[in-house]
Each structure stands twice: as structure tokens, then as C-alpha cells.
Amino acid sequence: MKSPAVRLPFITCSYAPWCPACQLLQPEWNRLASVAPDLGIKVAKLDCTVEASVAMIFTITSLPTIYHIKDGVFRLVKGKRMSEELKHFVETQSYELIEPETWPYSPGAFYMPTVVRLLDLGMSVTRFHKYMVSKGMPAALSLLFVATAILGSGACFGMLLLFICEYCCPPRPQILSVFGMAGARPEPIVTKDNVSYLHSSLF
Fold this sequence. Notes:
- It comes from Schistocephalus solidus.
- The chain is 50% helix and 11% strand.
- It contains eight helices and four strands; from the N terminus they run βααβαββααααα.
- A four-stranded mixed beta sheet has the order 2-1-3-4.
- It starts with 9 loop residues before the first strand and ends with a helix.
């Protein structure tokens, strides 16, 4: 029987090629990566200039930024930049002393993949705008074009949702009555105008 794969913890560094501190860290990070199999961890790097949306998810506010990740728990590693310090940090499990990132801001939160997709979409729009400007289109005209496209897409999406709600999932009369949309109420059979006539006819 094949044993299940073991998920090794990660230690990851977010950096930018132009960052002097990141350039100083690079040799130390490479040395840490060379001993990673012996430590039972995986060492990774995140280029914030390439994966900008992921960097936003990690709420990168300074460079370099180091995270320790184990079992979906993210811990921010501060102050340790030398390979020996990081090696000792992993070997002694000092990460257990660090408070995990709180749930709303944790990169491991369940809604983060959706946020990443939205951020990627925003970055794509930004790249398209820069491309149009580089081709000679005035920046104001490019922004107007992008804004029109976004509003048009939103309107089409809204109409699609309206169609689905109206024709595929019609609301119940009880729900419509809550919003005052149930239509006119039927007239009662007995009213104050004909009650005297009915009384005289019956008795």
C-alpha cells in the first residue's frame, strides 16, 4: 500500500530584483535552499514584480518578507536574514513561538483564491491600459475606453443575473409581498356596501 504524501512546510521569501536588501539576502537564501532537504522543508521565492496579485494577498509592505507556512498556517518571520539563523529557526521549531496571521488577513483564507483572480483581472486591465498608451493612444482616451468596457461588462453581467432570476428562478408570491411587488389584492366577496343587501336577502 502506497503511503500518503507528506506535505512539507514551506519557508518563502517575497522579493523584488531591484531591492538592495533582497540582493544581499539572495546568497543566504540559496545556502538555505541547499540544506532544505535535510531540514524537511521547502524553500521558495516570490518575485513581487511578476506575481503582483499574490504579493497583495501576502500583504507585502516591505522587502524582503519571509513567511513560514505549515499546515495552512502562515507566520511572519522577522529579523532573521542569515542562512544559519533561518536554519536554527527551523530546526528548533521557533516558528511555534510566532503568532499566526489572523484569519481575515491570512493568505490561507478560503476566499483568497477568488481575491487573487480579481486582482489578476485588475492587473490585466492595467497592463492593457499601458499597452494602449504605448501604442500612441492618449491616456485619457484609453482610460475612457477601459471604463466603458468595464461598465458594459458589468451591465451585461447584471442583465444575465436578472434573466436567470426572472425566468429560471421565479420568486414566490410570499417573497414578492415582502417587497410590495405581489400585485393588487383581490376584492373581498363581502364588503360594507353589499353586506346589508345580503343580510336582508337571507333573513
